[in-house]
Design goal:
single chain; 458 residues; alpha+beta; 7-stranded mixed beta sheet; 5-stranded mixed beta sheet; 13 helices; 27% strand; disordered N terminus
Length: 458
């Protein structure tokens, strides 16, 4: 997120000096009062935090599944480092970034899931655009690239001036944070944390979507110890990102409505999800002598869910196996990926050796089955060979662990990007800064918990 002419990063103790000289919070918050060249649009007005909250008709309460989101504000970075994603029109085929970003803007503009849409270019400050203007920039290339942008300043402005109930901001950028020298690298996460924390938003959430695109133009490495720029570039794909920032419920809903259909790498910070529907399935791959322990289970009500396993007999020679069906369709793709579920689903148990033996997704056979398994997208098989003398709780928990792609896409030196492949300088540090704000001093909350009971049969 930089250009060859003007790159900055200072330790957090000096951030204020940096921002006042380049891309300051005051500059970005100046609204229509800011001076500008005649060729630029009016500086983007920021929402007034003192205005009354939208009425129920305008913005449903957080947590409500009904009604559209009140506002989505899209910020596209147009610094020099982004030119390779949006090269000036030359008759050549558009980059994948151009195709993707143009489609996203079109989908959002037509969507009834968001009442109001605002579009901005991020240069030395935000400039308001129409949908047509921003889409044209994506398609035709950056005509007047910014000399510099600064990630903490942008994030500070998003959470300070564009944060409102039932609303989100989406920042589209390469998220290359350029330190002035190697000694400033340890402060990257601190700078991001301070920027996001300054406004004190208690329900802040951030969803990160990572993509890669072909890149045609000059690439500006974050570290200048070797080369100042690589031109032409690049023989490898280059990552870019959509960061969705806002109240937790609004971020969750925007993700589901407008970003889940697009394949991407994902990471979610501070977003909370409803507990998914679940049930024991006593006629699906069950082994041994057990039945539903609920009092009304014999009625077998259509669509009922069960969470108590009553075991008649169990031993190492005669194990019991049962399957829990999970309906994860309302969760992001990250948490539906079996490769993520297998290491991160855990079973807590007391007075028993119950353990998970397999995790798998629905198949055509389960989807077309006449049994209750057709209601669920994923399945967890549990085996038991030892049981206590009384009813004991079990808990199926999906831990929210940082996905492996973040480490794989992170590099400490992007001056050899053609050899390193699709990586972003200090990406892990940037997201460390986000995690520090969204989790605070608390442990990372799990994605969900499913309570179960394991008991001897009457």
């Amino acid at each position: 997120m930089h250009s060859s002419a003007f790159l900055r990063l200072l330790p957090s103790v000096a951030v204020a000096l940096l921002l006042s000289g380049c891309y300051s919070r005051e500059d970005m918050n100046a609204g229509g009062e800011a001076t500008r060249p005649e060729t630029e649009e009016t500086t983007a007005p920021a929402p007034n935090d003192s205005k009354p909250a939208p009425t129920t008709a305008e913005a449903p309460e957080q947590g409500s599944a009904a009604g559209p989101l009140a506002q989505a504000s899209i910020f596209l970075e147009v610094s020099g480092s982004m030119e390779g994603f949006m090269p000036k029109a030359s008759g050549a085929e558009n980059t994948r970034f151009q195709q993707h970003a143009a489609q996203f803007l079109s989908d959002l503009n037509r969507s009834t899931a968001v009442q109001r849409k605002s579009y901005f270019r991020i240069k030395e400050k935000p400039y308001a655009d129409s949908y047509q203007q921003l889409s044209q920039t994506v398609r035709s290339g950056i005509q007047q690239p910014a000399s510099s942008t600064d990630i903490p300043s942008v994030l500070d402005t998003l959470v300070s001036r564009y944060y409102a109930p039932n609303s989100v901001s989406v920042l589209i950028s390469d998220f290359i944070y350029s330190p002035k020298n190697a000694g400033a690298i340890p402060y990257i996460s601190t700078d991001v944390t301070d920027a996001l924390n300054r406004a004190g938003r208690s329900d802040l959430a951030v969803s990160v979507y990572g993509y890669t695109s072909d890149f045609r133009g000059a690439f500006y490495p974050a570290l200048k110890t070797a080369v100042k720029k690589i031109n032409p570039c690049c023989d490898t794909d280059i990552p870019y990102y959509f960061w969705v920032v806002g109240p937790a419920d609004a971020v969750r809903r925007f993700d589901a409505l407008l970003l889940e259909r697009q394949p991407a790498q994902q990471a979610h910070f501070g977003v909370k999800y409803p507990t998914p529907a679940s049930s024991l399935l006593n006629r699906f791959q069950n082994v041994g002598s057990w039945y539903y322990g609920e009092k009304d289970a014999s009625k077998r009500t259509a669509g009922a869910s069960y969470h108590t396993v009553a075991v008649s007999k169990v031993s190492a020679q005669e194990p019991v196996e049962f399957v829990v069906g999970l309906d994860l369709k309302t969760l992001p793709a990250l948490y539906r990926d079996v490769n993520y579920l297998k290491p991160n689903l855990q079973l807590q148990a007391q007075d028993t050796d119950a353990k998970i033996v397999s995790v798998f997704a629905a198949t055509d056979q389960t989807k077309n089955s006449s049994g209750a398994e057709n209601l669920y997208t994923h399945f967890v098989k549990v085996r038991v060979t030892r049981l206590g003398k009384a009813a004991r709780p079990l808990q199926l928990t999906l831990n929210d662990q940082r996905p492996g792609w973040i480490g794989q896409w992170t590099t400490k030196n992007d001056s050899n990007i053609n050899q390193a492949g699709a990586k972003t300088f200090a990406l892990s540090s940037l997201l460390d800064g986000v995690a520090a704000v969204t989790t605070g001093e608390q442990e990372q909350a799990p994605v969900f918990r499913i309570p179960l009971t394991l008991q001897p049969a009457d």
